[in-house]
TrEMBL record:
Pfam family, one: Kinesin
Protein family according to the UniProt entry: Belongs to the TRAFAC class myosin-kinesin ATPase superfamily. Kinesin family.
Gene3D superfamilies in UniProt: Kinesin motor domain
Protein name: Kinesin-like protein
Key words of the record: ATP-binding, Coiled coil, Cytoplasm, Cytoskeleton, Microtubule, Motor protein, Nucleotide-binding, Phosphoprotein
Lineage, opening ranks: Eukaryota, Metazoa, Chordata, Craniata, Vertebrata
GO molecular function, one term: ATP binding
Organism: Tetraodon nigroviridis
Length: 865
């Protein structure tokens, strides 16, 4: 088998060639030269520049989303589809401008949404990009990764007729990503292929060692299947009979879509087995499930057919057959020894894919196409171990999304509905994954199980591998709205971050087991583990149950320890928080106290001011009241005077009598005054005579002072007595007058004043009696003193002789009786009360008590004296 894979269909494969650097296509599309657009869509999550990888969560990488814009065909250009609605701004930014006829423009004109949208992607490839360039930038590295044990997925997404199949499979000499990847893969594996067929991958990451019988059976099955597949080709061209749900219809073989594969596969024409027309293919719908049906391969025998292979497949995935499709457990993996065999199966699978002519695409894929190839990394020393590392490359050509209503055929419409449903589920899964990346929000269930497509791809979205999306764009103006929707969907995918790798989980589990063991059993298990570097490359399924249980125990202990640490930390934090809170509370308390004191001072000041104001107002008020009362008193006095005068008018006789009596009293008083003056002069003269020098003089002066005192008392008493009697009479008269007035006026106040005056007069009487007694005593005392004085003078005369006798002749005269008048108004009193009474005479008091009686005449008052 001399097969040159260096350039199978004219394209050069240089594995060591550096990745080409593409220039921006913005200038060609006028993206940079266009004026600044007035309005931009805000729906593009990639509007801002992409964050660097280090900024992403946990250092994970974002899902790479590449955009490829296909060139317009001459026919499309002739239809006027080139309206510049898709423009590349730079290598990462794409601008969509709604054409006039589009629905988006209509809604934009109604003001509902923008007419210009900007999207950001990992890289944008313009229409001039060749298949080789696109492969080198996208798939080449993936192939390398797969050979290094990584899992990789590449899937295309876009509107129908946008170039997805062209990108994956190619057309004519322009082979797509998949044939190039296969050629590259087998070239790299050349000379290192494992020839025996004694291992077989079972579900997911498990590998089973086959015994001799199983190897033989496997070989037979493989050869048979390869033959059956190769047999299908002529059968399909002969209108393969297909029975679905009892109805037999002609199966659309879609041979026209095989041109590119056939072109590449032409390299292997000589190697194809001889076609056998004795096989037959039948598809039977599974009971109760619309999307599942069973494909049976029959080998024609002489007497009828017998089944060779039964596959249960999903209509939305790869409806007829492929050995690389791993949807349900009864599918099997076929051992591929060379690129040639891979091509055969690929071509067969391609033949069994559904194609149809739609209104947009002459050869439209009516089902998703998934191609998977697994590489078992076998080492002789680990051959017996079930944990053989496996890496997988999956290339998925999704069917194009399209408007169902525009399908003219019922069958096409059903297909379009199925396609859109599965694409919608894919979109929901991506949106849910995007949502779950935000740890602050409650996680959503990712609806992987709602579609076979998402079930197949689930592993790549859950850390099993790295996925990459290729968005194909048709720049035709007529499908602008669909293109916009596809870009919106893929814009969500640009925000996806790859989940944590399952390999990192394995490494984590192994690191757990390699921690210092708490007991002997653990250490035993660790010793039994393989070299870490060897095992870390594998998947989680390579760990046995015992190891996993041990890891769980370690994790439990770790969790327990963490909880204890957390509790201790929490207690510490609580303590710190409490102390800090207490400090804050104390500060607050001090603050409040200061504030309170300040407030109290302010309030005190405020209320003091208020009290002062109130006092001022009260004072004003009571002053006013007092004035009013005084005014009232004055009015009352005036009234009283009026009444008196009227009373006088009414009883003139009594008034006259009173006036006459008053006149008499005044006369008497004047006489008393005159007499008093005369006596005073006389007393002064006597005093001058009585000045005696020496001790006798001293005695004499003392005696004189006492005498004067007694005289003053007596005179005051007498004056008081006389005045009192006069006043008593006057008071009685006034009382009678007032009573008369009161009878006429009924003034209660006046009556009370008179009663008080009567009481005072009674008291004066009593005082008068006491004064009379005192007078008697003073008189007796004066007599004794006069006698003593005479005696002293006589003794003095005897001692001085004759000269002195002459003097003594005058001095020896018997002492004259000293008049009492000089002490008549003496201020000396016997007690405080008397002094008061002496100062304020009964007459004065009576007059005062009768206020507001008419004011006294100055001549009639004792003060005038
Ligand atoms: N980059 C390209 N260069 C040249 N021609 C292209 C390119 N991309 C697509 N085409 C052409 O556009 C047409 C439609 O492409 P293709 O069938 O791959 O679209 P599709 O997206 O797979 O459609 P569907 O989803 O209906 O299967 C084909 O004739 C193809 O040759």
């Amino acid at each position: 088998m001399a097969l040159s894979l260096s350039s199978p269909c004219g394209y050069a494969i240089d594995e060591d060639e550096d990745m080409p650097v593409f220039e921006s296509t913005a200038a060609e599309h006028g993206g940079l030269s266009r004026p600044r657009l007035p309005e931009l869509s805000v729906i593009s999550p990639g509007l801002n520049s992409h964050p660097s990888l280090t900024e992403l969560e946990g250092g994970s990488e974002r899902v790479k989303v590449y955009v490829r814009i296909r060139p317009l065909s001459e026919v499309e250009k002739g239809r006027g589809e080139d309206q510049g609605c898709v423009a590349v701004q730079n290598e990462e930014a794409l601008i969509l401008k709604a054409p006039k006829e589009s629905q988006n423009m209509k809604t934009a004109e109604r003001g509902i949404g923008p007419s210009i949208h900007k999207f950001s992607f990992s890289k944008i490839f313009g229409p001039e990009t060749t298949q080789q360039q696109f492969y080198e930038f996208t798939m080449k590295k993936m192939v390398k990764d797969v050979l290094q044990g990584e899992n990789r997925l590449l899937y295309t997404y876009g509107v129908t007729n946008s170039g997805k199949t062209y990108t994956i499979q190619g057309s004519g000499p322009e082979a797509g990503l998949l044939p190039r990847a296969l050629v590259s893969l087998f070239r790299k594996l050349q000379g290192r292929l494992y020839a025996a067929m004694d291992v077989k991958p079972v579900m997911y990451q498990d590998v089973r060692q086959l015994n001799a019988g199983e190897v033989r059976a496997q070989e037979i099955q493989r050869t048979s299947l390869l033959q059956e597949i190769s047999i299908c080709c002529p059968l399909q061209s002969e209108n393969l009979s297909c029975r679905r749900g009892g109805n037999t219809s002609t199966w659309d073989s879609g041979i026209g879509g095989l041109s590119s594969i056939s072109n590449v596969a032409s390299q292997f024409e000589g190697e194809l087995p001889v076609q056998d027309s004795s096989s037959h293919f039948q598809a039977v719908k599974l009971q109760g499930r619309k999307d599942l049906f069973t494909c049976r391969f029959f080998k024609k025998k002489k007497k009828g057919f017998f089944p060779v292979k039964i596959l249960t497949l999903c209509s939305c995935c790869f409806p007829k057959s492929t050995v690389f499709l791993l949807v349900l457990p009864d599918l099997t993996w076929i051992h591929v020894r060379s690129a040639e065999e891979a091509w055969r199966i690929l071509r067969a699978g391609r033949q069994n894919q559904s194609f149809a002519s739609t209104y947009l695409n002459q050869n439209s894929s009516r089902s998703h196409s998934i191609f998977s190839i697994r590489v078992l990394h076998i080492r002789p020393e680990t051959l017996s171990s079930p944990s053989i590392p496996i890496s997988e490359l999956t290339v998925c050509d999704l069917a194009g999304s399209e408007r169902c209503k525009e399908q003219r055929n019922g069958e096409r419409m059903k297909e379009a509905t199925n396609i859109n449903t599965s694409l919608l589920t894919l979109g929901r899964c991506i949106a849910a994954l995007r949502h779950n990346q935000n740890k602050t929000r409650p996680p959503q269930v990712v609806p992987f199980r709602d579609s076979k497509l998402t079930r197949v791809l689930q592993g790549y979205f859950c850390g099993r591998g790295v996925s990459c999306m290729v968005v194909n764009i048709n720049p035709c103006a007529s499908i602008y709205d669909e293109t916009l929707q596809a870009l919106k969907f893929s814009a969500i995918a640009t925000q996806l971050v790859h989940g944590p790798s399952t390999k990192s989980r394995v490494a984590y589990i192994l690191s757990l087991l390699s921690e210092p063991a708490a007991n002997a059993n653990e250490s035993t298990v660790i010793e039994e583990e393989e070299d870490e570097s060897d095992v870390e490359d594998g998947d989680i399924t390579m760990l046995n149950t015992e190891t996993l249980l041990q890891a769980i125990d370690v994790l439990k202990r770790k969790v327990h320890r963490q909880r204890e640490e957390n509790e201790a930390l929490e207690a510490k934090v609580r303590e710190q928080v409490v102390s800090e809170v207490m400090e804050v509370i104390n500060d607050m308390q001090n603050g409040f106290r200061e504030t309170l004191e300040a407030q109290t001072a302010l309030l005190e000041e405020k209320y003091e001011n208020k009290i002062a104001n109130l006092q001022m107002h009260l004072k004003k008020f009571y002053d006013q009241e007092l004035k009013e009362k005084e005014q009232e008193i004055e009015n009352l006095s005036a009234d009283l005077n009026k009444i008196k005068s009227s009373h006088q008018c009414r009883s003139p006789r009594r008034s006259q009598r009173l006036l006459a009596h008053q006149g008499r009293l005044d006369t008497e008083l004047e006489q008393c005054r005159a007499e008093l003056l005369a006596r005073t002069e006389e007393v002064t003269k006597l005093k001058m005579q009585l000045v005696v020098p020496g001790p006798a003089g001293t005695y004499a002066s003392a005696a004189d002072r006492k005498l004067e005192e007694g005289q003053r008392n007596v005179s005051s008493a007498r004056t008081c007595i006389s005045c009192a009697w006069d006043l008593q009479r006057l008071g009685a008269d006034l009382q009678s007058g007032e009573r008369a007035c009161c009878r006429n006026t009924g003034g209660e106040k006046l009556r009370q004043a008179l009663t008080a005056a009567d009481e005072k007069i009674a008291k004066q009487d009593q005082i008068l009696v006491e004064l009379q007694n005192n007078l008697m005593l003073v008189k007796a005392d004066l007599r004794r003193k006069a006698e003593t004085l005479a005696q002293v003078q006589a003794d003095l005369c005897k001692k001085r002789g004759r000269g002195a006798a002459a003097a003594c002749s005058t001095e020896n005269r018997p002492p004259l009786k000293r008049p009492f008048f000089p002490s008549l108004f003496a201020t000396r009193t016997y007690n405080g009360r008397l002094a008061e009474e002496a100062q304020v005479s009964p007459y004065t008091r009576i007059l005062r008590s009768r206020q507001p009686s008419p004011p006294r005449s100055p001549a009639s008052t004792p003060r005038s004296l």
